[in-house]
Specification:
Immunoglobulin-like, 9 strands, alpha+beta
Amino acid sequence: MSNSLPTRRTILMSMSGLVVMAATGAQAAAPTKEAMLMIESDGDFPFFVPDELTVPTGAKVSLTFHHTGQIMTQSHNWVLVKPGTMEAVETAGIEAGEKNNWLKPGDPNVLAATHLIGKGAHVTFEFIAPAPGDYPFMCTTPGHGEDMHGILHVTPN
């Protein structure tokens, strides 16, 4: 018999090790918290309703944003940013243009974002809640961020 072929004992020991690792990993994994959030525009006015949301840190967040406008044709998005970066994100978004949803691709200050949606539309997307703290969210359509913004409060576990 060749020394390069694994023996039955080696195969069985390897398989039992995989089973132990899988079982240990399954026991160590904590259940994931989930949070469902709903937010909408204030009709044809550039405001979010509500303008404050709360989730626990590390939660898998499912956010639905509804553009309730019926008359105005401007698109809106929902963008979660790092504290203190709203103005920088808005400026970079203007440079990126509408074709990029008024967001600079790969902007490290953007934590989560929807694409632009028109009146009557809605979008649902998921993200993981960041570390505890207060995080601003905004619409990056030029001129909207001044009024169309709010705070995501992220609480400790």
